[in-house]
Amino acid sequence: MDPVRDLIVRRLRQIGLTMREASLRIGRNHAYLQQFIRRGVPAELDERARVALAALIGVSPDDLRARPAPEAETAGEFTYQAGEGLPPGVGERAILRQIPIYPGLRDLPVYGAIKGGIYDAMVDLTHVVAMTFRPPELVGVKGAFGLFNVGDAMSPRYEHGDLCWVNPALPVREGHYVAVEFKDGTAVVRRFVRRKNSQIQIEQLNPHEVVTLPADKVANLYRVIGAIEAR
Length: 231
Hints:
Layout: H1 3-15, H2 19-25, H3 32-39, H4 47-57, E1 78-82, E2 97-101, E3 108-115, E4 121-132, E5 145-148, E6 163-167, E7 177-182, E8 186-196, E9 199-205, E10 208-214, E11 218-228
Parallel strand pairs: 3-5
Antiparallel strand pairs: 1-2, 3-4, 4-8, 5-6, 6-11, 7-8, 7-11, 8-9, 9-10
């Protein structure tokens, strides 16, 4: 995450505002800052939004101007577990591929748990809880992010606390594991079954259940490309 976006996230956390609330207070639609910070759209704040946001979060408008990217921060090699392409019914978690990671910038936002919503335990996509290094598959991917899986509904594929990697640029088809983003800014990890007319079906593994959702409650489906096990 670049310095401008990082500053906005930190100041919003400090003053207790969500991205949605701040977006509305500066006269934009509710998803404006979420799009700007998570997906890089727009690439830079326009002057009116910059001035209004600076006043809201208590910084100078100049602090919200883009700056050259810092030199890459590096770290030692560690492993990334990608879960695609495994034989059905074969100890998926035990045979996840071990892929080396040679990280660069610690610029990948990670989102964490919140209670409530459609399910008892969900991920809050309006508050960044950590920044981490990108796996090779997400280097250069605009809008990529990570999330901590919440609950046991996707066990044994994804366990509670696993860090899931999300690539919003990849197409989603039936059978893919996805982060289901709801219009209130919350999300869950599930398997996409199908979309038919005005309904979306998603599957949880534990206990097994296929749930049908009204399509107008779902904002996006994002591809989950793998995960790192919780320690």
